[in-house]
Amino acid sequence: MRKWCIFHMLLFISMLSFAAVHGQVSYSIPEEMTKGSLVGNIAQDLGLSVERLKSGKARIYTGNSEEYIELKRERGMLLIKDRIDRESLCGQTMPCALHFQMILENPMEFYTVTVEITDINDNPPAFERGELKYEISESALTGARFVLEKAIDDDVGVNGLSSYALKPSDNFDLKTIGRGDGTKHVEMVLRKPLDRENNEYMSLILTAVDGGEPQLSGTMQIIITVLDANDNPPVCLKPEYKASVTENAPIGTMITTVSASDKDKGHNGKVTYMISKSGAAGLFKMDPNNGELTLNGNVDYEKRTLYELDVQVSDPGRLSDACKVIVDVIDTNDNPPSINVMSKSHTVSENMKPGTVVAMLNIQDPDSNNNGKVMCILNENVPFAIKSTTTNFFTVVTDSELDRERESEYNITVTCSDEGVPSLSSSVTLTLHISDVNDNAPVFEKRSYEAYIVENNTPGLSIFTVKARDADWNQNARVSYMLEDSSVNGVPVSSYVSVSADSGVIHAVRSFDYEQIKDFQFRVKAQDGGSPPLSSNVTVKVLIQDQNDNPPQVLYPVQTGGSVVAEMVPPSADVGYLVTKVVAVDVDSGQNAWLSYKLHKATDRALFKVGLQNGEIRTVRQVSDKDAVKQRLTVIVEDNGQPSRSATVVVNVAVADSFPEVLSGLTDFAQDKEYNDNLTFYLVLALAVVSFLFITCLVVIISVKIYRWRQSRVLYHSNLPVIPYYPPRYSDTLGTGTLPHVYNYEVCRTTDSRKSDCTFGRAASQNVLIMDPSSTGTMQRIQSEKSILDEPDSPLEVRQGTRENYGVRQVVFRLA
Ligand SMILES: *[C@@H]1O[C@H](CO)[C@@H](O)[C@H](O)[C@H]1NC(C)=O
Ligand SMILES: *[C@@H]1O[C@H](CO)[C@@H](O)[C@H](O)[C@H]1NC(C)=O
Fold first, then answer.
1. Tell me, what's the pLDDT at 389?
2. pLDDT tens by residue, 754-777
3. Same domain, 798 and 758
4. Is the CB of 539 within 6 Å of ligand 2?
5. Is 356 among the domain residues?
6. Residue 411 CB–ligand 1 contact under 6 Å
7. Among 170, 275, 346, 511, which lies 20 to 30 A Cα-Cα from 336?
8. Cα 443 to ligand 2 centre (Å)
9. Tens digits of per-residue pLDDT, 635-685?
10. CA of residue 485 to ligand 2 center, whole Å
């Protein structure tokens, strides 16, 4: 079109050189006028009349060009014949004009007509494509330029493309850059970085506007896809995670899960979890892919109650975030209480007051709360108590009296248990020794002792051993024995016995004579070695046992050296006539004093017999005249001891009616005539002497009794041995050798029967006793039998009963 236009103009110029130019006219019309619109009144403008046009057959000459304008000759006007589009006529060429000639004939002339076509805004700017797609990474830097397609507006001048606008213009600026050829180049410049996470797809409208009136515009859509870049770090969902795990939980126990998110997409959004290698990292394990935190070791509440783990979350681009996991360790009752003995006594004295502290303990339980609350108890049956002084401190105290003698050692078991469920406990045993205090006196094995010793012992013989025990210990229990001062019959007891201090053996100091002392008692003291010492005493009664050390003594008939005493038997005496009675005593006792009488020798054995038990000499047959006047009998008196002892006595018997007969008949018997003559005198004298002696004896007996009574009071009413009473010895004070002493005696023999068969012999009343001057009296003892005499009320039967067992025969002499 443009080429064509140029060509046409050149043609038009060349034509001008051939024809006579009479004038020219120019018009200016806008394009796109409707057909028939008036362009101009050419007749008038050229000063030609319509007739001339008619006559000259005026016509438009456009050469080969298209005729857009026609000539109306009748009216002399130029009208629009066809639509004129300036853009197709001239394109961008300015100015755009139609040049043609109007040719007249008659005369031939031509006029040049120029019609300038002015532009009207009939074309909007337009883009070649309706949309443009871009993929831009969000990491694109600001200032990045993206060339846009430019719009084309066919209009020219002011109606041409004027400007561009981009909407929305958040991220991009629009920039137009003029080029050398006058065209404009359009770019978008990244003003603000893109964010895929925020806006992945963007749609922009680029609008191009022209400058016409009214303004026209064209648009193009720019679709931007924002490509992801790893521009977002992973972010923990919570800055801090709290979790708990019980101690001793097995490895692999799930604790918690840490989550983080990454806004980036795909690979850029993949989060890796990691616990930073600090502190207790080895105890925990984190799954790098899903953030699961599990236990990887053994957690112990007592070592650490809380773990703070730093967790790092990162994406492949090494962008990262950190958060924290706080793991509380929950206590379980896994520790028994531990008992520490802070101090303890190994030994306490048995006299300690209740409440004495014997041990101090410190109890530790590292568990918490009830798992760590500890209670302590002691084993049963110990006299101790446990007390809590302050938390975790306990004291063990005595809570009752101690007695080493009952229990010398205690094993005190302290058991401490916590209040966890189940409860754990531990225990410790304290061994406590109780030390001795001298709180026990020695105690004899018996309340009293009786010991027996046979008389005639050797001095120094050990009689007996006393033994006392002391419940205390060691020195406090070392018993020594000693004799307590007392006297026996006025003699210090120490001259009778001695006690071995260590062994308690009692020794006789002297030889004892049963006939002098039958028993005695004393006290032995046992004393321990404590400080102060304690002691006790015991009564020891020593009973002396008889030995057959005395032969029987014949009291009657009295044996004289030279004189002859004869018993008279009348020749008419019957069978069983009691001739006389041999009286003997034995100072021993019991069997040793049990006497029996036997006929040893006799002139006529067939005439007499001797009572085995009573010593009575009786006739066995009728005495006859044929029998010898003088009969001589020898009687043996034997005791029953082992071995037995005996005495013999000679009894003279005269078979006669009267004493003178005897004298005359028996020359043997008549030895001392003078003696017989003075018999009466001596009898009177003897009676006086005997009376005197009797009174003296009475006085002595009474004194002795008083003394003994007082003595018994003094000696704690104890059964001290009775001081035997020895009657004074009878001696021949007159020196005559004759003791005209009449005994009225009785012999009482207890036998099996309850009643006492006392036979009273009155020999002396009939018979004459003639004593040899050398003979001594009989020592008579009144001793145990005295109780019978003293206490006539006492039940005789009982005494008989006891004596019978020994078969003791009692001989009681009563001075007549
Ligand atoms: C105390 O324990 C010890 C050692 O176990 C033991 O030999 C002793 O007999 C016990 N004592 C008592 C009084 O139980
Ligand atoms: C002997 O023991 C008794 C108690 O058994 C006591 O009363 C007495 O005083 C003691 N005698 C001496 C001399 O210690």
1. 83
2. 433 333 333 333 333 333 333 333
3. yes
4. no
5. yes
6. yes
7. 346
8. 12
9. 999 999 988 999 999 888 888 877 666 555 544 444 444 445 567 777 888
10. 12
pTM above 0.90, yes or no: no
Based on the fold, state whether residues 150 and 93 are members of the same structural domain: no
CB 430 within 8 A of CB 396: yes
Q: What is the pLDDT of residues 45-101, one digit of tens each?
A: 888 888 888 888 888 888 888 888 888 888 888 899 888 888 888 888 888 888 888
62 φ/ψ sector (left φ>0, alpha ψ -120 to 50, else beta)? alpha
Both 257 and 345 in a single domain?
Answer: no
Owner of token pair 């604790």: 255
pLDDT digits (tens, 9 = 90+) for 262-280: 888 888 889 999 988 766 6
Q: What is the mean pLDDT of the chain?
A: 81
Ligand positioned closest to the Cα atom of 447: 2
| Contact between 28 and 119 (Cβ < 8 Å) | no
Do 740 and 791 reside in the same domain of the chain? yes
Asked if 497 and 457 touch (Cβ cutoff 8 Å), the reply is no
Measured CA to CA in angstroms, residue 339 lies from 302, 333, 411 at distances of 17, 16, 16
Separation of CA 434 and ligand 1 centre (Å):
13
Q: How many domains does the chain have?
A: 7
The answer as to whether 423 is a domain residue is yes
What separation in Å is there between the alpha carbon of 447 and the centre of ligand 2? 12
pLDDT at 737 (0 to 100): 36
537 in Cβ contact with 449 (< 8 Å): no
Q: Which atom in ligand 1 lies closest to the alpha carbon of residue 409?
A: 13
Residue 26 and residue 98: Cα distance in Å, rounded? 10
Q: How confident is the model at residue 437 (pLDDT cuts 50, 70, 90)?
A: very high
Give the residue, 815 or 126, on which the prediction is more confident. 126
Peptide bond into 107 cis (omega under 30): yes
Contact (Cβ atoms closer than 8 angstroms) between residue 565 and residue 608: no
Predicted pLDDT at 784: 35
Q: What residues make up the domain containing 463?
A: 443-545
Domain end (from 511, 545, 579) = 545
Q: Express as a percent the part of the chain with pLDDT over 90.
A: 39
* pLDDT recorded at residue 245: 93
153 and 76 in a common domain: no
- 8 and 103 housed in the same domain: yes
Domain-terminating residue out of 227, 260, 294 = 227
Residue 816 covered by a domain: no
pLDDT of amino acid 740: 34
Closest CA to 470 of 439, 507, 508, 442: 442
CATH classification at residue 101? 2.60.40.60
The pLDDT value recorded for residue 793 is 42
Q: Give yes or no for residue 484 CB within 6 A of ligand 2.
A: yes
Q: 135 and 46 in one domain?
A: no
User: Do residue 573 and residue 612 come from a single domain?
Assistant: yes
Question: Does a structural domain hold residue 581?
Answer: yes
Tally Cβ neighbours within 10 Å of residue 674.
Answer: 7
Residue 313 pLDDT exceeds 80? yes
In what helix (H) or strand (E) does residue 801 lie, and over which residues does it extend?
helix 796-806
Determine how many CB atoms are found less than 10 A away from the CB of residue 253: 13
If phi > 0 it is left, if psi is from -120 to 50 it is alpha, else beta; for residue 36 that is: left
* CA distance linking residue 382 with residue 82, whole number of Å: 141
Side-chain half-sphere exposure of 553, counting CA atoms within 13 A: 15
